[in-house]
From TrEMBL, chain A:
<dbReference type="GO" id="GO:0042883">
    <property type="term" value="P:cysteine transport"/>
</dbReference>
<dbReference type="InterPro" id="IPR003593">
    <property type="entry name" value="AAA+_ATPase"/>
</dbReference>
<dbReference type="GO" id="GO:0005524">
    <property type="term" value="F:ATP binding"/>
</dbReference>
<feature type="transmembrane region" description="Helical">
    <location>
        <begin position="15"/>
        <end position="37"/>
    </location>
</feature>
<dbReference type="InterPro" id="IPR003439">
    <property type="entry name" value="ABC_transporter-like_ATP-bd"/>
</dbReference>
<dbReference type="GO" id="GO:0016887">
    <property type="term" value="F:ATP hydrolysis activity"/>
</dbReference>
<feature type="domain" description="ABC transmembrane type-1">
    <location>
        <begin position="16"/>
        <end position="300"/>
    </location>
</feature>
<dbReference type="InterPro" id="IPR011527">
    <property type="entry name" value="ABC1_TM_dom"/>
</dbReference>
<dbReference type="InterPro" id="IPR036640">
    <property type="entry name" value="ABC1_TM_sf"/>
</dbReference>
Automatic annotation (TrEMBL), chain B:
<dbReference type="InterPro" id="IPR003593">
    <property type="entry name" value="AAA+_ATPase"/>
</dbReference>
<keyword id="KW-0813">Transport</keyword>
<dbReference type="GO" id="GO:0045454">
    <property type="term" value="P:cell redox homeostasis"/>
</dbReference>
<protein>
    <submittedName>
        <fullName>Thiol reductant ABC exporter subunit CydC</fullName>
    </submittedName>
</protein>
<dbReference type="InterPro" id="IPR027417">
    <property type="entry name" value="P-loop_NTPase"/>
</dbReference>
<feature type="transmembrane region" description="Helical">
    <location>
        <begin position="50"/>
        <end position="72"/>
    </location>
</feature>
<feature type="domain" description="ABC transporter">
    <location>
        <begin position="335"/>
        <end position="564"/>
    </location>
</feature>
<dbReference type="GO" id="GO:0016887">
    <property type="term" value="F:ATP hydrolysis activity"/>
</dbReference>
<dbReference type="InterPro" id="IPR011527">
    <property type="entry name" value="ABC1_TM_dom"/>
</dbReference>
Length: 576, 572
């Protein structure tokens, strides 16, 4: 997907236009030179009247105008091509992201993904907007100029043919090597500004330890040290362009010398032809040199494309769904048979051989140490990640037979950090329901979840903006929003990730009572961090290292399982 | 604009490179014009069949000019880049000083978002300021003044045409382009903000979106935002292309005008025909230099934005003047707070209201309470991290207002909730505690906080990214233990540790702090039996004070919290 050459091939129509604009530009450049020389020749050598050159002047104006227009069109075509490619790339990336099961978005660094979508795609731009148009210009226009030169004065043509290859040769021999070095240095630069950021972020620590003055000197010296290192590299780069400059100058100088000698000594060359050669030769070399800088930006684009490849390559198995509608008059029975799961690229962690049965309306508590796989098990039950092996059955039928929407319609997931979308409190609660709901229903749900007091304390009430760019809510408040969503939805299955830390007294009480109220009509599966929750559970699943090591009620487990017993009693005792 | 001038003052300290860049740029520009005008003259002269030696002189001088031009172009590039890097280093140090002066209070501002990262980015943006915005117009002006001076010897009107063209190409057209650019920039930034917001909502909210079956809808919105952003980018690109084309067209047009008028003057004998080609080539070459002016507005706008943001950190409301007396503590101090109230400027609610407490010398005090109750703010006020406007803090019954912040911190072992670790080694990160620490001493302390699985030379990544939460906390505590000051301020120092490690670490702290005054904020209520006093806070107020047994017997707020904690299950 991110192969730039392949992407460019799809834009053949635009390529044809680019070639056409290059040819037309070449013709305009040549015409401009012809007309300009002709005018000066008439006036200076032939001494004609001004009125006789008016037509030529009009022609020259037209050539100048045409030259600009075609250059502009060429650039614009490149930009359009770049915009189209980038649009398609972004579409494909978003599609790729949305097809993924939950695991990847949770695993992968979200910041990096956003920057891939926005900035890295932008970096692809210059390949299409600058490099490709420049390639056409640098290939076609010099050929046109050369043809004209040959037709007018063969000697100049020969000088150019002999000297011109030196420009690409020098570019290749010295240019590329230093370009790599320059790129290295640029990377070094981003590392360096990273270190500066590191120091700034640590200023509090430095100041509390009285080290900030010393650090200032360190910044100054390392800044200057970095400058000197960079200058060493840049010096080579500048020397290279100096060499290129000398090559083209020398060549133009040769052309001029030959022309002058022929005009003065041999007197077999007219002013007209000689001047034309002098006008055209620089244009030829400039176009060749332009390719070098365009190539540099193309390389940056290629590096960006490579980064994007990673976004496409990492394909994971999606969750499979069927067609059947999942209707549940009463909460369903859920069964996991021999389920295995492993995150792709993470060999260490796995859920293995999970067998469990959840009866309708049961309260299930999943317990276990950090990293034992509690949340992953919740994701498996929810259908947010696919089982690698084994099956998840609902009401005796494979969950994968049901349609995705009918399943999720019956499910609420209250995570520890529910995501709030940019919008009002009201909007965030109504997200819970797919049906249209009345304002009364929303407010009732909010009241049951204990949000009414929060809303009441805000000047705009339920219309207060929260989420990105809005008012920040605490973890407990976010969970209450998620609970309000669940009240509105009235699902038959509730998945709940209990807070790991103690909240303030009031929030604790609210959380407990509203979850209990929700559980009256639904199957409740909790990743439990409260002794109360565990004691109330009909079934406890005790996870260790991705395996169920025991299950049963609290009393049963206290009797039969020593590690469970130890876990509970350690909790009761003191730590220090 | 005044923001840019303020930054300029900081940046343009080193003048040598600036002068050299301008000088080299000027020589490069003027010799290039000389080179082309001379070859125009040369070819015209050749047509008149002059003696051979004039030709030799001319050819030699053309070559010489070419070499000088190329060399000074090299010099211009070299000096302008070196100058730029020197300026960036000036700017970095300056920014560091500014932020340092307001640290740690200013960090409240930096908490939200990556403001700091943006500042660093803005500093990088300023590298274009000198390179693309400042000196090119100066060079251009000098080159044109010299050109006009030269041409004025030949023809008044042609000089006027060049002058008018210069004013247009260097000022009027870029100004118009810049004016349009600003509007476009605004919409690009806005649509960029939209796509970032949509993307982060889509990715962070993925699980909820999936369950609420809004993935398709949200993906559609994201794609829509991406399309809008791309449309804006495309508009921006086309505008830049247009600006460039206008500039090229105009510079060609001036040469055209010079040719037309010059040709007319030749026919009316106001100008010698031998100079016609020279004039045309002067115009063509001179106006090639104005092409850089087409991109100037967009760099200027970028720099202006960056300068505004950088200045906003300089001109933030003036920090309180801190006292300059030195707090010197021979032994552990008596710390007292009297009727302190505090409100953060951006908040309507008070964070603390009328808080008074006393920490006797050598006492151990714990503050507990739900998050948001003002515990950390209280500690930070005692440390004078934020200025106390209402109420008083006393060290040994002396008002803290007279002491310098630095001298208070010198006497305190502080572990905050967020502790910073620098890119480097474990040794580097411990060494900032105090001068003259031996390796043996560091290793001893590492063992005490159960970090003996680390070697002193082990690598620590930026922000301690390769350390776990508990390891970072232990490293921070190790740093405090090495410092050995007589006051301790610990803000949830062990929240990410398991119970066993926590116990060992506390043992090390309390052993080291036996004689010292210690204040500990904790979210866990276990092991508080040993504390001399426990302060319970809620909503910015102290609701209970007492020893563990007193509070438990009282069956008040602390007792209720304890009950909840008993029921909360921490899975080590």
């Amino acid at each position: 997907m991110a192969d730039l050459k392949a992407l460019a091939k799809k834009e053949q129509k635009k390529m044809v236009f680019l070639a056409l604009y290059a040819v037309l530009s070449g013709v305009a450049i040549v015409s401009q030179a012809y007309l300009l020389v002709a005018i000066i020749d008439r006036i200076f050598i032939q001494g004609t009247a001004f009125s006789e050159i008016v037509n030529l002047l009009i022609g020259l104006f037209a050539a100048i105008f045409a030259r600009t227009i075609f250059q502009y069109q060429s650039g614009k075509t490149g930009l359009k091509m770049a915009a189209k490619v980038k649009r398609e790339l972004r579409d494909a990336i978003v599609r790729q992201y949305s097809l993924n099961p939950v695991q990847r978005t949770i695993q992968g660094q979200t910041g990096q993904k956003i920057s891939a979508l926005v900035d890295v795609v932008d970096e692809v731009d210059s390949y299409f907007s600058r490099y490709i148009p420049q390639v056409f210009q640098s290939l076609i226009i010099p050929i046109i100029i050369l043809l004209v030169i040959f037709s007018e004065h063969v000697a100049t043509g020969i000088i150019i043919i002999i000297t011109a290859p030196f420009i690409p040769i020098f570019m290749i021999v010295i240019g590329f090597k230093t370009k790599d070095k320059t790129e290295e240095q640029l990377e070094e630069m981003s590392r360096f500004s990273g270190a500066f950021l590191d120091t700034l972020q640590g200023l509090t620590t430095l100041k509390l330890y009285g080290q900030s003055a010393r650090q200032k000197e360190a910044i100054r010296t390392s800044s200057i040290g970095f400058r000197n290192a960079t200058m060493e590299v840049l010096k080579i780069a500048f020397q290279n362009s100096l060499v290129l400059e000398f090559v083209s100058m020398l060549s133009i100088g040769l052309v001029a010398l030959e022309v002058a000698l022929r005009m003065i000594v041999f007197q077999d060359l007219s002013f007209y032809t000689g001047f034309l050669m002098l006008m055209l030769a620089p244009e030829f070399y400039t176009k060749l040199k332009d390719l070098g800088s365009a190539f540099h930006s193309a390389k940056e684009s290629m590096a960006a494309a490579k980064k994007l490849e990673g976004e496409f390559a990492n394909s994971v198995q999606p969750v499979t769904w069927g067609q059947e509608k999942f209707i549940s008059e009463k909460p369903p029975a859920i069964e996991l048979k021999n389920v295995h799961f492993r995150y792709p690229g993470n060999e260490e962690f796995a859920l293995s051989n999970i067998n469990m049965k959840i009866r309708p309306l049961e309260k299930v508590a999943i317990v276990g140490a950090t990293g034992s796989g509690k949340t992953t098990l919740l994701h498996l039950i929810a259908g947010l990640v696919p089982p690698l092996k084994g099956e998840v059955a609902v009401n005796g039928k494979l969950r994968s037979k049901y349609s995705e929407s009918s399943w999720f319609n019956q499910l609420s997931y209250i995570s520890q950090e529910p995501y709030l979308f940019a919008g009002t409190i009201y909007d965030n609660i109504t997200l819970g329901s797919n049906q249209t709901v009345t304002k009364e229903e929303v407010i009732e749900a909010a009241e049951k979840a204990g949000i009414s007091a929060l809303a009441g304390s805000l000047p705009n009430g339920y219309d207060t903006f929260i989420g990105e760019g809005g008012r920040g809510l605490s973890g407990g408040e976010k969970q209450r929003i998620a609970i309000a969503r669940a009240f509105l939805k009235q699902p038959s299955i509730i998945l709940f990730d209990e807070p790991t830390t103690g909240l303030d007294l009031q929030t604790e009480r609210f959380l407990q009572s509203s979850i209990e109220e929700l559980a009256a009509r639904s199957t409740l599966i909790t990743v439990a961090h409260r002794l109360h929750t565990i004691q109330q559970a009909d079934q406890i699943i005790f996870l260790d290292n991705g395996k169920i090591i025991a299950s049963g009620t609290h009393e049963e487990l206290m009797d039969i399982n020593t590690s469970y017993r130890r876990m509970v009693t350690v909790q009761q005792g003191g730590a220090i | 604009m005044k923001d840019l001038f303020a930054i300029m003052k900081v940046m343009f300290v080193e003048k040598k490179d600036i002068a050299l860049s301008v000088l080299c740029g000027f020589i490069a520009g003027i010799t290039a014009i000389g080179l082309f005008s001379l070859s125009g003259y040369l070819i015209s002269k050749s047509a008149l069949q002059p003696p051979l030696y004039t030709l030799m002189i001319l050819v030699a001088s053309v070559k010489l000019l070419g070499i000088i031009s190329a060399l000074s172009r090299y010099g211009e590039r070299y000096f302008s880049h070196r100058g730029t890097f020197t300026m960036l280093s000036q700017l970095r140090v300056h920014i560091y000083e500014k932020i340092e002066a307001r640290t740690p209070a200013i960090f409240r501002q930096f908490q939200s978002g990556d403001l700091l990262a943006r500042i660093v980015g803005d500093v990088e943006t300023m590298q274009h300021f000198f390179l693309r915005v400042c000196y090119p117009p100066v060079v251009l002006m000098l080159v044109f003044i010299s050109t006009i001076f030269f041409t004025s010897f030949f023809s008044f009107w042609l000089t006027m045409i060049i002058l008018a063209g210069f004013l247009f190409a260097a000022f009027l057209i870029p100004a118009y382009i810049g004016w349009k650019q600003r509007k476009i920039d605004y919409s690009v930034r806005k649509s960029r903000g939209d796509i970032s917001t949509q993307a982060s909502e889509f990715l962070y909210g993925f699980r909820d979106l999936k369950i609420y079956q809004r993935i398709e809808e949200k993906a559609g919105q994201l794609q829509e935002a991406a399309k809008k952003y791309e449309a804006e980018r495309e508009r921006e690109g086309i505008h830049k292309q247009f600006a460039e084309s206008i500039n090229i067209f105009f510079s060609l047009l001036i040469s055209f005008a010079v040719l037309a008028v010059g040709a007319y003057f030749v026919t009316t004998n106001q100008l010698d025909g031998v100079f016609l080609a020279m004039f045309v080539l002067i115009a063509l070459t001179a106006f090639e230099n104005t092409r850089g002016m087409a991109v100037l507005p967009s760099f200027l706008e970028d720099n202006r934005q960056a300068a505004i943001r950088l200045n906003s950190i300089f001109t933030e409301e003036k920090a309180r003047e801190w006292g300059n007396a030195r707090l010197q503590l021979e032994k552990s101090p008596f710390i007292r707070i009297e009727d302190v109230s505090f409100r953060f400027p951006e908040e309507t609610r008070k964070t603390l209201s009328n808080v008074s407490l006393a920490l006797p010398p050598g006492s151990k005090t714990a503050i507990v309470g739900p998050s948001g109750s003002g515990k950390s703010t209280l500690m930070q006020l005692m440390l004078q991290i934020f200025p106390v406007y209402k109420g008083k803090v006393y060290f040994n019954e002396e008002d803290a207002i007279y002491y310098s912040q630095e001298s208070i911190w010198e006497n305190a072992n502080v572990v905050l909730q967020e502790n910073h670790f620098f890119y480097g080694t474990i040794r580097d990160n411990l060494a900032i505690a105090k001068d003259g620490l031996t390796d043996a001493r560091m290793e001893e302390i590492l063992a005490k906080v159960k970090l003996n699985h680390f070697q002193l030379q082990d690598r620590v990544l930026e922000k301690g990214a390769n350390l776990s939460g508990g390891e970072k906390q232990r490293l921070a505590i190790a740093r405090a233990l090495l410092k050995k000051a007589p006051m301790w301020f610990l803000d949830e120092p062990t929240s990410s540790m398991d119970a066993l490690t926590e116990e060992a670490v506390y043992r090390a702290i309390f052993e080291a702090a036996k004689e010292d005054t210690l204040l500990l904020i904790t979210h866990r209520l276990t092991g508080l039996e040993k504390m001399d006093q426990i302060i319970v806070m809620e909503a910015g107020k102290i609701v209970e004070t007492g020893t563990y047994t007193e509070l438990m017997e009282k069956k008040g707020y602390f007792y209720d919290m304890k009950q909840i904690e008993r029921s909360v299950f921490y899975h080590g």
